[in-house]
Each structure stands twice: as structure tokens, then as C-alpha cells.
Please model this.
Amino acid sequence: MTKLFQEFKPAEYDSWINQLKKDLKDKPLEALQSNPEKDLEIRAYHHPKKDEFLSSEITFSNNFSRSNNNWNIRRIYNTGENKKILNDLNIGIDAIGISVDSEKQFSENTSGVLFEHLKADCQFTTKESALAIQADKHCYLNFDVISMNNRSGKKLFDLNDYLQFYKKHSSNKTIWITGSDYGQAGSTTVQELAFTLAHLNEYLQKLHDEKTDLNEVAQKVILELSINENYFVNLAKFRAVRELAALLFSGYRSDSTFPSPVLYATTSNRFQAENDRNNNFLRQTTQAMSAILGGCDVITILPLKGKTSDEQELNERMAKNIPLILREESYFDKVVDPAAGSMFIEDLTNQLIEKAWTLFKEIENKGGLITCMNSNFIQNQIEENQNYLKAQIENKKQTFLGINKYPNSLEKWIDISVPEKSSGTDFKPLATFMLEQQYQPKTMVS
Model:
């Protein structure tokens, strides 16, 4: 088979870069460089020779190991919503998330649900419910004690509580890592990946110390990551995390090949807004697109709470329809790892892997994630990025449509107050960070 463009002579780097400078006219090459996030650098030009890309090389094998690019559309349900669950399963939802408080409540909520035909996850909020309830073997079980401690800022559970849970539910996937907490709190993508990896390693180390079979452990990992406003960074993030997970497991046993974790993608509230609310649908669409093209397995679009029942219904319907349209009408499920071979995306993926791994090692050298949470090392790093994001929005270096640029003059501005910080905690809790709360139009500032 003749390769495309084989008859054309490849451009030499020097002549190529000179042509690039000529096309830029009076602008320097630095004009094609930017920082999508505080700790990332990208440029809009790459050359196979200079950047050491090999056109024949298959990159990031853990992404190519997938047989398809299909995904499940997830919605989260509260107690007493069995009728709503069954209805949604008939109109496009094929993944459900359920908060579990008691065996009776769980039984009532899941009556008529055929777990073998969908992805379902159960989140336990107490040790008693986590140990008492026997869920269907197809259910993913979420008793992420580290996450619950992080959100509360208190040492409610320890790893021995999790170990009891793991042993109790040997037939289920039970190593759920809520890495999205870090992104929702305002971390950079590099930080979220590093913190998620360190979070996973706390459980791996505990199970390894208990002589648990590593091949069994690898089969049970679910990683939940947030999707922020940076389209290409999100895409690269979901490619990078598979490689990082494989790298972590190889540190325990280098002579084995481990399966990729299940990847859950959850939209971030960081760039959702109460003002000019319809823009949220556009933001949710691009966030979903980036995670899907990056190869997530399950996607959750978190709808903002509607002011009326009709608005709430619209928000929930759009949260379901956006990924459904991307699959059924835009055919995003037809190509595995569609970004493979793009030197820009490959370089960005490599950068995320290298920088996240470096930060992960720093965390481990400080004693691991739990120690770093207790000392507020993690929280302080996230706060640095929060301040950076605030400055970007305030100075309009980052566009927040309908907020700091092109606000809707036909609507009265809704002043969103910043929530009070928790008191009486053991360490700083992780809380949802919304940029809209940090910004006021100049005309409102006294």
C-alpha cells in the first residue's frame, strides 16, 4: 500500500522554521506559545525531527488497547427516585449513580433495575451501610474513605475501614478514586492527575501490605476525573491517566501487564454560572466532547439546579441529550483515540505525564497523600491555582462568556456570594470552587 504523500520530499527543519517566521511577518515565534494552565506550556508548531516524533511509532498503548470509543451516560439519583431511574433508563441513560444509606432504601431505589445491562455505582456514606449491603456483582461500589475525609476536613475513617469493605465485597469493583474532588476544588490538571495517582497509591499500598494479589486489585480500579474548561488539556488528561496508572502499577510489579482502569468523567462546576445560564449548555458540550475524545468510559454532566421545575427538567434533559447526540448523531464513538498522531496532543499528553509523575513523587517523598492532606500541602497548592484563576478572570486574560465578557444586558446581574469556610476541622476541607463567585462587574464594586 502506497503511503500518503510518499512522493513528496519532507520539509527540512531549518527551511520549515524560516517559512514559519516569514508567515508570522513581524511577530516572534513566541506568539505561537501559550499557557493554557499555570503549569503547562504549549506551542502551535511541531516538527517530527526537532521534536523527536516517530511517524511509525504507536503512542500510548494503553489507549489503543480499547476495542471501541463507546461510553455510558450517567445520572446521579437521590433516595426515593426509583420511578425516575426506570424512566431515564428507557430514554437514553445507561449508567446510574446511587447514594446508599440503608439496605431498605437501596432495595426500593433499585427495584426493577437490570444491573447486568448497564453501569451502576453505589456510593456509601457510612461504614455500616458499606458493610451491610450486598449489591449486585455488576455494581461498582464507592466507599472512598479518603475522599469523604477530604471533603469534611475531618478524620472520619481510616484505611482499615476501607480494608474491611474491600474484603467484604470481593466480587465487585471497589477501588473508587474520586480524583474529580481535586479538579472541582480548583486544581490544575497536572495537580489533579498527581493527586489522583497519590490517592490511588494509598489504597494500593494498604492492599499490598495485606498481601492482596495485584492482578486482582488492578481489575477493580475506577478513576473519576473532572472535566474543566481547557478542551485540549482535558483530551490529553484522559489519555495521560491510563499511562500514569500503568506506571504506578509497574512500580509494584514490573513483569506484568495490568488492565486500564475504568474512567469516569464528571463536568466541573468551576466554569458553570447562574448568570446568563444558557451558556452552561455550550460549556457542558465542549467539556463532554473533550472527555469523550480522550477516551472516558462513563460521562456525567452535572446540571445546575433550576430556578423552576421547568428549568430543572430542561437542565436534566440537556445533561442527558448532549452526550447522546455526540454518540448517535456526531459518531464520536466510531474511532479509538482519534487524537493519536497529532504532535500537539502527543506533546501535551507527554507533558502531563511527566509533570504529574514528578509532583506525585514529591507527594510520596513527603509521606503520601493522606499525610499531605493533613499538613495542608495539597490544599495550599490548589489555593495557589485558585488565586491564579481569579486573577485571570479579573484581568480578562481568561474569557468567561456571559460573566467577564459579553454579559447579558437584558438580565439583572445575580450576585453569587462566596460560601463561608468550614470551621472546627482537622485540616482544610476540599470544597467546590466556582469562578463566578469570585467575580463582580466593575459597576458593582463599591
About this structure: The mean pLDDT is 92. DSSP finds 16 helices and ten strands in the chain.
